[in-house]
Amino acid sequence: MKKPLLIGISLMAAVTLTWLGACNSSHNNKTTESATGNGPYSRITLPQDAMATCTISKDSFNTWFQSGQASENGAVTPANSVTFPHQDNCDFYQWSERMFLWLTSSSAQYGGSVMASPVFFDVVSDSAGNLQMQRHIAGIIPTANSSLDKNGPNRLPVFRDKQGRLFEVMVHKAGEKVVFKNKAGKLIELGKVEKTANAQVLLMDKAGNKIEQAQIVTKLHNPDRVLHAFQTPTGTVVLDMGNKEVKLEAEVTQATLNALIAQNNSLVYYITMVNDMYAYYLTAVKDPNFKNDSISSLQFPTTAAARTCIVNYAKAHGYPVPTDSNALTMELKTSWVIADSLANPQDYFLMDAMIPTYTASSDTLWKPSGQKKAKLALVGIHIVGSAAGHPEMIWATFEHHSNTPNAAYQYLDTKGQVKTVAADKGRWLFNSNAADTPYNVNYINYDPTTQNLVAANSKIGIAPSNTQRLFPFGAAMDSIPNQQDTSASASNTEIIAINNAVMGLIPGADIRKNYVFIGAVWTSGGSIPNGNVYNPRDSISGLAIGTSLLANSTMETYFQSTSFTCFTCHHGASLAPSDLSHVFSKINPLKAMLDKIDKDQKK
Questions:
Q1: Distance from C-alpha of 405 to C-alpha of 263, rounded to nearest angstrom
Q2: What is residue 285's three-state secondary structure?
Q3: pLDDT(168) > 90
Q4: What is the pTM of this model?
């Protein structure tokens, strides 16, 4: 019998609340030295001559800290989302930086790290597949949920076609009622789909007649971005709205999730969290007996009145009163690797977790064989939060500086001249050699039915792939990413400048200096996202602005595209939380958990 492998992707990983930050930062080294063969890893080096277009003064930065003075690994307070100014891009970037420093702070007030404290809940699945919120409490090992599901705004799986475009795919089962409209506008129920010898796709009605100029009838959001998969005697056919066949990079006959493996042979683990304000808000709006005009299920809270309403609801129902209620509602998605496989785990935020072990049945198939406690290292984090004027939420992301090489990009120097930074070279945690191609090719799928890991390419097997950050700070070369910046170089400069400012103001070898702010997105005036990225030729309402092509290389590895942004998947017909968040509608309110506990105690 083959030896179990102590690496894997955790769909049900138990996480202990041990937060083990280290103080020995290697931020000033261009590589992280290794004595074990798991390095040295390169790191992102930010241009130091970038124009200071987004910065923060020393005096203002000091006010971020609980003590009123910036200190090495010092405790930071959250950004005040209730009074968020939202005047220009830099306000959003400062909000993002402060929230990251707060979340990764440790202090006696929280009994350790903020993110591992009772302020936050893990979003976990129960035995029936329902989502629950499990508060971080010392002594209780919560269950974490991995969520690299490729779901779009219609909650359908997302696939990439051969041209790199992203689509949701609706898989129609045999016998399912599907209605088309013919060229005369008549509604006709689909009988069957056939593919002729010359590869022509025929849509037939119940009588076996061809439906001329057929157009599928659907109520799906953004139907032009939805493909429809049908079974034929010769295999699966995928059609767009014009009934043109589309070739995808992956098969759609079996629902699978991507898995990402690092060059240190650790798979990446994903844990979703929400803060107490999110938990209480969700519970309140799902409580049929609660009515208050200050909050609504139609949008996340953004005002002082909404904050007060949520706090009062918590008090009235016996929940711990939020100490950081001005942070409003927050949702986090975090990514981790096994720390023991790193040469320099002291340069990462660490926590203990129960991860599954796998037995390699072959080079192309790993089967789950149990669980084992391991120490994990943080490699990426999405920070999503509501703020004044922005119920669509601010979507920010950070990564460890040794994760992934950047593609070439441009910025403005202190004289306003455009400078080009060549694509990174070297060896990275998610890239064995940045000079090698192709990049961002998925080699591993996770089957949620069997919990098996399956090779996406049988010739290569289960192995690490080389990742590249295609749009280093969320802007494509020669594009205009938002309404404020006139070029990608100007947008990149803002992100570089705020990184330089914050890192320069944090004293000493603070571990937080090892993480880079990649960017943030939002919509103009908090308008309903429509899933599209900013284009100066279009109406700005609903478009993603800021670093509009934002992606985290550990979470959107295979979905980096010039048409893809956070809101491509996280949008719907309204600002309702159920349209923006993939977990909100599935999570049971806290009351349901308390009722279950009471019921169990009475047995």
A1: 13
A2: helix
A3: no
A4: 0.85
